[in-house]
Design goal:
The chain is α+β, with helices and mostly antiparallel strands. It is built from 9 helices and 6 strands, in the order H-E-H-H-E-E-H-H-E-H-H-E-E-H-H.
Amino acid sequence: MIRSALPVRRVPQALLPALIMATCFAQNPPAPHAYTWQEVRDKFEATNPTLLAARIGIDESKADEITAYLRPNPDLTASIDQINPFSEQPTPAGGPPAYRPFAFAFPSSSISYLWERRHKRQLRRDSAQQATTIAESQLADQERNLLFNLRSAFVTTLQQKAVLTVTRDNLAYYDRLLNVSRDRFKAGDIAKVDLVRLELQRVQFESDVQTALVNLRTAKITLLMLLNDRTPVEQFDVTGPFDFTEQISPLEEFRKIAMDTRPDLKAAVEAIDKARTDHRLAIANGSTDPTFGVDFARNPPIPVYVGVNVSIPLRIFDRNQGEKLKTQLDIAHNERLRDANVAQVFNDVDSAYATLDSNLTLLRPYKASYLQQAVEVRDTVSFAYQHGGASLLDFLQAQQDYRSIELNYLNLIGSYLTAASQLDLAVGREVLNP
């Protein structure tokens, strides 16, 4: 008997519970936290780099408001003239000439300020504020489109989770039938070629499982990319209802919500208001702004004098005609863009509603009868085949029909949820998604 030469150290009793828990967690790691849609959305709004970069643009636009409302700076001019550094000058007391370069110097200074008329500064501020309002609406529109991408990835993840569950259940069910068929082959009830055909059919169910695994992993990767999250795919999961609502509101209700909510339509309307403000600013910029000035100087024998002046440019040739015409045309241009945007809103809502209604038309009979009938046919034919009452071809066809109906149903629910997200996108806010 060989004994170990290494000493055996006892673990302190106080550390035993911690050691046991660590061993349990090492063997059974905790399940990843499953994010709900609201949690995914909150995380997206806090971490998505594209959205965060767009929000900085709002702050930049607000900084432009400060610049637009600044007053003109006054101008200060200082000068000194009649400096004579090249000859001597007579002294005041009548003595011999001396070197006095500043004896007859003429210092002067002036300060002037441009007075802006016709509320130019206020109009510039109003135009900058309206530009910020447009930027905020454009940010909301960008977020609307990004949320649709996020929702689509979320729905795809739920769909592939459901598909993976169904494909695994189908594979387990088929394996149980294979075990029964192997027992029947050993008992001589079926031929070897029938058993081989049954085992070859298992490849389809295995392929379904592997395809669902790859699709689920891809959907999670897309979701993590939108969340700017580096969590391993295996440790990330989502949860939520994967079902459909059989009744939806009338089309007119969605149209009305879209007209009140769509941020791109709001931006188009706000662009018209800004164009009108810019036109008023162009008219104001065509007016004359005087410059007032005050100057101080000495001019011997006058020790100090003060003067005032007013400078008024003569707007004979340049009266800002080009900007006036351009901004006037810009109003009409933005009005036409607003009309085109309204037409696009109706088109988006109507198209999304038609797609959603089409998916509901297909889903209702599945839920009402097709799924139950497929289960009954599969179980009936399987029972009959196991007892010699159905052919192998009938058995394989029943399995194939059930597999197709189950996957088609899940894909239709995924299409419905995607169409619901499309309708939310068209409306401008969530009206169908939980």
